[in-house]
Amino acid sequence: CWQENREFDIMPSNTDSEYGYFWGYGKNIGCDAPQRFGDSSFWTFDWGDTEIRYTWHTLTVGLGTQSIWLGPAYENPVLHSNNAASYPKFDIGIRKQRVVIPGLNWNLGEIEGRIWAGYLSESDYFDTDSNNNHNMINGFAVAYSPSFIPGMTLSVNKICLCKWDDRSIKYFNPFYDSNELEDQKASFCIDWIFPQVGFEVYGELGIDDYSYRKMPNPFHTAIYTVGAKKTFSIIKKYGIFAELLFEWNNFEMSQDFQLQWKYMGYYSHSLISQGYTQNGQIIGAGSGYFGNSQYLGVKLYYKKGFINIFAHRNAPDNNYIYNMSVNAGDNFSQLSKDYWARFKTHFSVGIDTSYFLTSHFLIDTAFVYTHTLYNTYKVGESFISNFD
To answer: What radius of gyration, in Å, describes the C-alpha atoms of the chain?
Structure first.
């Protein structure tokens, strides 16, 4: 993959690299999310969804770099997506299978689950300490589709980031919870499909560091994704139909932090200094990671592929401004003048299409126009327009 990587204005870096993320809990602490990957065009290589897998009945074991997609979201899953570069991992679990009570032959539904461990790396645009370049990620995911509620799937996911040492094996226990030298996150998902009318509704709630058990506010550190999809038959005779998708993501810090301390967000951490990242990109949601995102798309399917037209708004770093008011005291009035309505925001419209030349050869093309407001949060800052 080749990136042109043209120049644009960025904020002062919070890391050893001048291109690093612009704020955090301290120097080189918080999130390895570079504003720009260097000052020139560059090539990258990735193994993508490559793996070796062995399956025996419902038991499955895999080794490779296939990206994990957790939960029902189509654009921005809370815990894990293919937004970041892939990483080497090992997993073991059970594939989807029916749960039947022996003797009574009662079908309770279907269940599947997976446990995995992977090897994360920081980008070249974080710190200069070579001793902390890699973190361990391990995860646990289980999904259940009850037979008595057709079309519904419930799932629970847990992920932990920690350092590599001889004690890391304890994190393979999905119920282990210490919140000391690691970063633990969980999400709870629901997906309900109504095939008779071509409608689907879904949601995912994310909790950081299990703090919901320690405070009376159950939504402390909570973020969420909700969405709906509706399909329409256009010309049934020729297999042409349309799909309307809307998804809303809110990853802003819970506002009870205004009474506590500064909190970057769900994908950051003070002890795992790179945050929830792989090679400088967020492992979870690709947009609105410390803010919010709204996506609306209409996709037209036909026998040779599809055409998708969409509009997308995302404000990725709203927590940067919200944190300024924490313990602001007498400075609040000036902060209001400087930063009111100065949220960095991207407005995008685009079209992407996939066309099967043969049953084994596919061509993808896309054009996206992005209009960026307040890229560096400055009063009177001019807008930036980008062609992608």
So the answer is: 22
| Residue 332 phi, psi dihedral angles, 5° rounding | -60, -40
Asked if 90 and 117 touch (Cβ cutoff 8 Å), the reply is yes
Tokens of 184: 């633990």
Cβ-Cβ contacts under 8 Å for 239 (sequence gap 6 or more)? 301, 302, 303
> Which tokens in the block code for residue 57?
């009945």
3-class state of residue 46 by DSSP = coil
Q: What is the mean pLDDT of the chain?
A: 90
Kind and range of the H or E element at 165? none
Give dist(CA 81, CA 21) in Å, integer.
Answer: 21
Rounded to 5 degrees, what angle do the CA atoms 285, 111, 192 make?
55
| Cβ-based burial of 300 (10 A; exposed 0-12, middle 13-18, buried ≥19) | middle
With residue 318 as reference, give the H or E element that holds it.
helix 318-322
Q: What share of the chain in percent tops pLDDT 90?
A: 69
**Residue whose entry in the numeric block shows the structure tokens 């654009």:** 75
Q: Distance of alpha carbon 138 from its chain centroid, rounded?
A: 16
Give dist(CA 382, CA 388) in Å, integer: 19
Decide: 67 and 85 in contact? Cβ < 8 Å: no
Percentage helix, strand, coil, to 5, in the chain?
10, 45, 45
75: amino acid identity, one letter:
E
- Which two three-digit tokens encode residue 257? 């932090």
pTM of the predicted model, to two decimals?
A: 0.90
